[in-house]
Every structure is written in structure tokens, then in C-alpha cells.
Predict the structure.
Amino acid sequence: QVQLVESGGGLVQAGGSLRLSCVASGRTFSTYAMGWFRQAPGKEREFVATRTDLSTRYADSVKGRFTISRDNAKNTVYLQMNSLKPEDTANYYCAAGRFGVTMREYDYWGQGTQVTVSS
């Protein structure tokens, strides 16, 4: 069992930056792909980014603006978000599972952290 706790969300103006963190419990953190998804009000949850030790993948909408990184020694995955836009406003979820871009590939989910970007 893996428990995930996100932090770092908040309110930021368009063009600003935020860094999200997700701390995982358990001793097998390094064996999981770690991903970030987001869900805006009235919309489905969508893929943002995912990372293993060897591979990284981003949604087209965030390429060049967001960076996912991980520190296996700290059981933590980060999402650095730069040049934020109002359309990035959503609840951001951390997930652990297999490397992929769909929700079904992830077995464990955090509770989410809200990101609001004002125009």
C-alpha cells in the first residue's frame, strides 16, 4: 500500500510559477512510475506528466512549461509549473503506478491540491 500526500498548491497570477510536491509512504517508491493528473470543475481528470528513473512524458498542453522530477531518497515527486495560465486552474493529483498517460495505469492516488491561476 502506498499513501500519497500532495502540497504546494495555491493562488497565483498568470505568468507565475508554483512547485507541487507529493510525498509517498512505503519503501518501494523507486519502483513506481509517478504521475501528475489534474481535474478542472466540470471536466474529466486529465494526464499532465509522468516519470520513471529513465523516462518522462508530458501532456502537449504543458510541454515546455512544466517539469516533473523525483527524489527517490525522499520518496518525493515534484511538479514545477512555470508560465502558468488561467486554463491550468484545476485540482492536481499525484499518482503511483505503471508508466502511462491514462488513469487506469495508476494504482494509488493522493487527495489533490488546488491550483488557481488568475488572469
About this structure: The chain has a mean pLDDT of 96. The chain has no helices and eleven strands. The radius of gyration is 13 Å.
